[in-house]
Amino acid sequence: MSHKKTAEGMIKCAGPIETALLPRLLQVTEAAAIAASYQMGRGDKNYADHVSVEAMRRTLNYLDMKGIIKIGEGERDEAPMLYIGEHVGTWEGHLEVDIAVDPLEGTNLAANGTPGAISVMAMAERGGLFHGPDIYMDKIVVGPEVVKYERKHPEESINLDAPVVDNLEIVAKALNRNIDELVVVILERTRHEAKIKEIRATGARVNLITDGDLMPGVATAIRGSGVHVVMGAGGSGEAVLTAAAMKILGGKILARLVLPTVANGKSEEAIATEMAEKMPRLEKMGITEKNMHDVLDTDRLVPGNDVIFSATGVTPGTLLKGVSLFGEGDARVNSLTMGSSGVVKFTDTIYINDKEATPLRFV
Ligand code: VTB
Ligand code: MG
Ligand code: MG
Fold first, then answer.
1. What digits encode the pLDDT tens for the residues 207-249?
2. What is the 3-state secondary structure (H, E, C) of the chain?
3. pLDDT (tens digit per residue) in 280-328
4. Same-domain status, 32 and 104
5. 74 and 162 inside one domain
6. What is the separation, in whole angstroms, between the first and last Cα of the chain?
7. I need a labelling partner for 51 at 20 to 30 A (CA). Which of 22, 102, 263, 274 fits?
């Protein structure tokens, strides 16, 4: 008997969330992206974010599920929409779903009309997503070839605390190329000055981005994208969303909360005060003094097994085109939607508003 996966087999092995909600997830990120795209380049990032949050929330509420936002737009008192803990969906049916959203990832990119803004979200069964605070996480993201290499050479593993050169040597070997043929993506921030120097010293090529470290992370798992590693500190929500994609595509992310340390130039006293303030909130999320410095891998960030992910381009990016608006409220959108059975869809969707006024174009 052959055990080759076929489309039929994959449909059968998809979990209940993937089966019921994958196509609907696409519509949610599409709606958020289209709403944001009307604000592209208008210079108002908060308004662009606001309209995409509202569109995402409205469309999410059509879905028959008991949905809880685990990664969202701030906490209850800070954001009226899609806050952590908010219930979404009809709360009918049997599906209990945890949700991570970033309705407009790269608000600056959208407001400036520059490449890389997306609308993105992921879902998993209850308990399937890391529930963490919105503070920076230090990250490293690599593709599935590296995971395979590590399995064959257990003594050579990517390590968040290792010198950059050690990690890049592993990636280079896994991808069967030289270090100077690698591309490392990192946010251009003063906090990364030392790391950027360290990367350059290895001979690797660097792609400094102004915002949006999530899709480059996804791109490490897609050959031909031109991205091999993502490094540096960025949002924790972005880390969980990246992990959802890595879980589906077989890549790997390691991440750790960035908490105040003496190494960051703070006094012991300042650290104690800051931590005393933060701890009660962190503890509510299950983060304790004991586990707060843990390096979280893909499975700890996304323990779920029925995981779905969708991203829709707002402005053009490496993997996704931006939204095109035409006719009278017509839109064409490009998305990447995938589920843990192993199905990956790149879609090109056209929403026709005025059927008579809009002649459909083939390409
Ligand atoms: C990070 C990164 C995001 O914003 O959250 C960043 O993960 C914010 O970092 O992809 P700074 O506080 O240093 O600006 C993004 O780049 C865009 O949301
Ligand atoms: Mg956001
Ligand atoms: Mg973001």
1. 999 999 999 999 999 999 999 999 999 999 999 999 999 999 9
2. CCCCCCHHHHHHHCCHHHHHHHHHHHHHHHHHHHHHHCCCCCCCHHHHHHHHHHHHHHHHCCCCCEEEEEECCCCCCCCCCCCCCCEECCCCCCCEEEEEEEEEECHHHHHHCCCCCEEEEEEEECCCCCCCCCCCEEEEEECHHHHHHHHHCCCCCCCCCCCHHHHHHHHHHHCCCCHHHCEEEEECCHHHHHHHHHHHHCCCEEEEECCCCHHHHHHCCCCCCCCCEEEEEECHHHHHHHHHHHHHHCCEEEEEECCCCHHHCCCHHHHHHHHHHHHHHHHHCCCCCCCCCCCEEHHHHCCCCCCEEEEEECCCCCCCCCCEEECCCEEEEEEEEEECCCEEEEEEEEECCCCCCCCCCCC
3. 888 888 888 899 899 999 999 999 999 999 999 999 999 999 999 988 8
4. yes
5. no
6. 43
7. 22
- We report the CATH number of the domain holding residue 102 as 3.30.540.10
Per-residue pLDDT, 79? 55
Cα 232 to middle of ligand 1, angstroms: 11
82 within 8 A of 69, measured Cβ to Cβ? yes
Where among 301, 319, 343 does a domain terminate? 301
Residue-averaged pLDDT of the chain: 93
> Closest-lying ligand to the alpha carbon of 32?
2
Q: What ligand 1 atom has the least distance to the C-alpha of 108?
A: 17
| Residue of minimum CA distance from atom 16 in ligand 1 | 211
State ipTM: 0.97
pTM for this prediction: 0.95
Pocket residues for ligand 1 (CB within 6 Å)?
105-106, 187, 189, 211-214, 234-235, 238
Owning domain of residue 63? 7-129+304-351
